Amino acid sequence: MSTTTAATATRDARSLLTAEEFTGVVATVQRANPGMDDALAERITIEGLKFVATAANRASGRMAPSPVVDEGWHALILHTRVYADLNTRLGGRFVHHIPQPPNPTHPHAPGLLAYTQAAIEAAGFEVDAELWEPGPTVAADCQHVPACGDNDCNVECQSGPN
């Protein structure tokens, strides 16, 4: 009798973009963060892709990126055609980014980043935990606070201290 062990497949977020698109987004991350090495810029871009892919297909629950992952998301958004095509290919909702002016009294949901990481893992991606903790300093200077109903996928950017 033979036994088979089913391996859990991990989704490859890198494959969501062509090589040319990926290189362009990575370069945008690096332009916003002078001196950042290629490997870190690629990791940030990949984590941004995981965030968007998961947010586009969540049936419910609000998500927010860490400031480091937000850097990858911002770079994706700046490539408007790539970002629009990505959202279409993902088959879910368009993941909108809604900036807000600084407001230190704006509430931040405790546990939101942990919830978001769990959602990304549930979507089949491996989370790069280092990019979800205070770590590399990046140009993105905002705290995201979801400001949407469960049927929308909008994430507002709360600038200023966390």
The fraction of residues assigned to DSSP E strands is 5-15%
Helix/strand-derived category reads mainly alpha
How many discrete structural domains? 1
Order of helices and strands: HHHHEHEE
What integer value in Å does the Rg equal?
16 Å
Mean pLDDT: 80
Key structural traits:
162 residues; mainly alpha; three-stranded mixed sheet; 5 helices; disordered N terminus; disordered C terminus
Q: What is this structure, in a nutshell?
A:
It is built from five helices and three strands.
Topology:
Elements: H1 19-32, H2 38-56, H3 67-78, H4 80-90, E1 96-100, H5 112-122, E2 142-146, E3 154-159
Parallel strand pairs: 1-3
Antiparallel strand pairs: 2-3
Helix pairs in contact: 1-2, 1-3, 2-3
Describe this structure in words.
The chain is mainly alpha-helical and 162 residues long. It has one domain. Helices cover 41% and strands 10% of the residues. It is built from five helices and three strands, in the order H-H-H-H-E-H-E-E. It has helices at residues 19-32, 38-56, 67-78, 80-90, 112-122; strands at residues 96-100, 142-146, 154-159. Strands 1-3-2 form a three-stranded mixed beta sheet, with helices on one face. Helix 1 crosses helix 3. The longest helix has 19 residues, at 38-56. The radius of gyration is 16 Å and the shape is globular. It starts with 18 loop residues before the first helix and ends with a strand. The relative contact order is 0.20.
